[in-house]
């Protein structure tokens, strides 16, 4: 096998225009989170993306004893403790029985002392529709402002949305959109989950995939997802293969081109993620709403790579800081 490409901080660097747009975007995030309780009609401040929590569970990563010797330094134990959050990508919370099938599965990996090793926010769609940092920041800012204005003034959103059309017309993106539409009514645990962007793996760069095993895709067809998950974890164990791909060649495995799949990079099975039945935590407690799955809080050797990923660093910080400040105040008043 060829030697993987090494991480270089140049993959993450923003230009001056992008930095200015990021500051504007951060202000819109803080404003959104401050108003999020009224936007979603709940008694706490929510995240500005993946606001809706379906479930939070404790789990375990069981390391594959047959992993390549070169990976032993990263997985020097038989197992690692996990906290896992299941969510919906929408920035608001609603009580609809049917949600759009844009699901998240954020995985937090602990070390032997209970400290944080890594956070990996994963999604059930492997690609991202925007490669331009400027377009993404303008679009995200416009969406935040529209929510606060009760969707008055949609022109800024439409103006940026038009710019992303070429990025969603790639073969990879269209193929995965068709696949998602065919599975849109399937049970949340039957989807594969992906890191979308790249992450460091020591000196190298990887993408991550979780592939569930033996899950009935037809479970809970006429139930709310939160209720179905609760029922499932009361009676079932959940297991998924943990797979990674290495970046060998930027042509086949691009770092800053998130609308195409990586090719010519075989998956390596790292181990299995397992959630034992009865492992659900109370998803609506204050403690769980204060949880952060910010991948930039991970150890340096596991942090995200790429310009779009870099934006998430500042966005997460603003969102978490604002949300925690408000929710701690509410918790002190007994509102949570």
UniProtKB/TrEMBL annotation:
Quick check: keyword Transmembrane helix in the entry?
yes
Q: Which UniProt keywords apply?
A: Membrane, Transmembrane, Transmembrane helix
For this protein, the parts annotated as crossing the membrane are 153-174
Q: Which domain of life is it from?
A: Bacteria
Q: What is this protein called?
A: Catalase
Recorded source organism is Chryseobacterium rhizosphaerae
């Amino acid at each position: 096998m060829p030697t993987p490409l090494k991480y270089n901080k140049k993959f993450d660097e923003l230009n001056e225009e992008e930095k200015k747009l990021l500051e504007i975007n951060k202000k819109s995030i803080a404003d959104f989170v401050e108003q999020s309780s009224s936007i979603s009609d709940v008694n706490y401040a929510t995240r500005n993306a993946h606001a809706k929590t379906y479930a939070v569970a404790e789990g375990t990563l069981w390391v594959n004893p047959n992993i390549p010797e070169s990976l032993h330094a990263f997985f020097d134990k038989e197992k690692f403790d996990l906290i896992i959050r299941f969510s919906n990508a929408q920035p608001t919370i609603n009580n609809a029985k049917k949600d759009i099938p844009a699901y998240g599965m954020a995985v937090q990996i602990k070390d032997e002392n209970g400290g944080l090793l890594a956070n990996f926010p994963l999604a059930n769609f492997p690609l991202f529709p925007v490669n331009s940092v400027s377009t993404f920041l303008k679009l995200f800012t416009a969406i935040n402002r529209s929510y606060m204005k009760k969707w008055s003034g949609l022109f800024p959103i439409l103006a940026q949305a038009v710019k992303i059309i070429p990025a969603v017309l790639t073969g990879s993106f269209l193929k995965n959109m068709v696949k998602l539409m065919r599975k849109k009514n399937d049970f949340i645990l039957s989807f594969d989950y992906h890191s979308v962007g790249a992450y460091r793996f020591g000196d190298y760069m990887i993408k991550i995939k979780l592939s569930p095993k033996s899950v009935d895709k037809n479970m809970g067809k006429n139930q709310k997802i939160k209720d179905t998950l609760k029922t499932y974890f009361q009676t079932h164990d959940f297991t998924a293969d943990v797979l990674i791909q290495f970046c060998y060649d930027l042509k086949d495995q691009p770092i800053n081109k998130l609308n195409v799949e990586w090719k010519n990079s075989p998956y390596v099975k790292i181990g299995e993620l397992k959630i034992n039945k009865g492992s659900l935590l109370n998803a609506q407690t204050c403690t769980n709403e204060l949880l952060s799955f910010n991948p930039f809080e991970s150890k340096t050797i596991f942090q995200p790579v790429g310009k779009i990923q870099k934006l998430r660093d500042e966005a997460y910080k603003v969102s978490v800081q604002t949300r925690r400040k408000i929710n701690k105040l509410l918790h002190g008043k007994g509102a949570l």
